[in-house]
Design brief:
Blueprint: E1 3-5, E2 8-9, H1 12-36, H2 47-57, E3 64-67, E4 75-77, E5 82-85, H3 95-113, H4 116-144, H5 149-187, H6 193-227
Parallel strand pairs: 3-5
Antiparallel strand pairs: 1-2, 4-5
Helix pairs in contact: 1-6, 2-3, 3-5, 3-6, 4-5, 5-6
């Protein structure tokens, strides 16, 4: 097994790269959102009002728009058909707030239209959560049991489901943002340069999902390097 220093596994560099990517993406989205949250939309609509208008324009009347505490904790819950908007979006009139609200509406529209990647992602949630929770314990137990490879391999396979979930998330998020921009432009909720500003906010947000997928892939690669097909030393 390669080492940079005694007792320090050199594959930690993969974890470090993933962490740096995630931190960088988080910094970009926070900076971009902060910048455009200071730009008031010409329509004067709040994020909640924009969400209601977008949903109704798409013929969706059974989704409830709600306020949820926190900053950028916005999400759409397909189980309860609720669109939850955070403090920085729900009652704010900025182009950033409206863009984020529209993005979450994009998920509601995906759900209404039976968008296949969203359906697949929802189906993967339970197994991805299980994989994330028990993959490392299985691997560690396998190593303790005189390097019991079947148990180690099972742990790696379970972790791979979490990676697949992250990969499936990418088209879901990109499509929701594309729908958001198109709807905002078509409905006239935002005008001209405002749409461009919103694109920048949503593009920055997309980086967080790309970084999360990259970090998961790097972690899976590390597991394969360390434990995949390896015999006891």
């Amino acid at each position: 097994m390669p080492y940079f220093y005694p007792y320090i596994d050199s594959t930690y560099i993969l974890v470090l790269i993933g962490a740096l990517l995630s931190l960088a993406a988080s910094g970009v989205v926070k900076t971009t959102f902060s910048k455009y949250s200071k730009v008031r939309s010409l329509s004067g609509m709040t994020g909640a009002q924009a969400a209601e208008r977008i949903l109704h324009s798409a013929g969706i009347y059974d989704v409830t728009v709600m306020h949820v505490s926190g900053n950028l904790t916005d999400h759409y819950d397909p189980r309860s058909k609720t669109l939850k908007l955070s403090d920085s979006v729900y009652s704010q009139t900025s182009v950033a707030a409206i863009g984020v609200a529209a993005h979450e509406c994009g998920h509601a529209i995906q759900h209404d239209k039976g968008y296949i990647p969203l359906t697949l992602r929802s189906a993967l949630v339970p197994v991805a959560n299980i994989g994330s929770a028990i993959s490392w314990p299985l691997i560690i137990v396998g190593v303790v049991l005189s390097w019991f490879q079947p148990l180690i391999t099972l742990g790696i396979i379970l972790f791979s489901f979490a990676v697949i979930f992250q990969l499936v998330t990418l088209p879901v998020e990109f499509n929701a943002s594309a729908r958001a921009v198109r709807i905002l432009n078509d409905t006239g909720i935002l005008y001209g340069e405002e749409v461009t500003h919103t694109k920048k906010v949503l593009s920055a947000a997309a980086l967080t999902y790309v970084a999360a997928a990259a970090a998961s892939i790097l972690q899976l690669l590390r597991l394969v390097i360390l434990f995949g097909g390896r015999n006891r030393d």
